[in-house]
Every structure is written in C-alpha cells, then in structure tokens.
Amino acid sequence: MTEIQIKNLIKEYEKEYIEFMEIEKLPQYKIDFFEINVEESDAAGFASAAQAYYNTKTDEHILRICKSSEIPRYIVFHEFTHILDTEMYAKQDSWKYMALSGYTEYHAAQVELMIMLGADSIQTQDFLECVLYVKCMRKIILKKWITQLLFRNFQKYYLKR
Length: 161
Description:
Layout: H1 3-21, E1 30-34, H2 38-44, E2 50-55, E3 60-66, H3 73-89, H4 94-99, H5 101-116, H6 125-135, H7 139-157
Parallel strand pairs: 1-3
Antiparallel strand pairs: 2-3
C-alpha cells in the first residue's frame, strides 16, 4: 500500500472507531510511517504494525504505522484507545502519562478483543456477558462462546475474500 492509501485506511478506521466508542471525535494525531527492523524485532521477540506515542511537552499524539505490514482494524483500534485514554487522563502531564500505562494497555486490549470477536459497539451486550462468565469462572462456557464467535467472524471476514 502507498502512504496515501494507508492514510485513507486509517481515516476510515478512525470514523469506525468514533462510532464504535460512541464519542464525538478522536484527539488530533499525526501519522508517522516506519519500516520494521527485522534484527530489532528478532531481538525483542516481537514487532508491531502500529504504535501510539504522546509527547507531553508538545501535547502531540503520534500514530506510527508500518508501511510494509498488514494493518488490521483491531490493532489500529488498540492504538486509538491509547490516544483517547492519554487525552482524557494524562494530558500534558508526564507523571500521569507514565502512571496510566498499565490501565491504558488493559483498556486497549479489551477494545482489541471486542473488535476481534465482532462487537459492533463498546456497549455490546455479548462482550459484557463474556466478562461475567470470566468473573463467574465458567471457563468451559467462555471458551466455547469465544470459539463460536471467532469462527463466525472468520467465516464472515475471511472466507468471503
């Protein structure tokens, strides 16, 4: 994909995210492109197709996108959640930004999982039921439920291509 195509895809994801999260807008952010360094990712044990950064001094959000990788919706939603959380809870405060890292990673992972399971909104009742199952320790029911959702979404998105 070209940088223009990637920017258009990110803008489309942004519209979907705003609708999904039931918010009016996402904070402004700058898109920065990068290439994955294979040696660094091998040393770290992982690589990421997208990353969100925030500069507390300049109050600037940066969404870094890998040009040479697939850019799944769930990953971008994950990063958008970091941007939104930072804006809401740590704006221009480097101490709060550092302290927020655990919460925002947990929150972003929840949003990512909801997208992977096919939720249409942050208010999706099915996901709330999933959380209740976890709290009640009904692991077998939860595993079956997640497997069914993943299979249904796999059929919906991948078998149609």
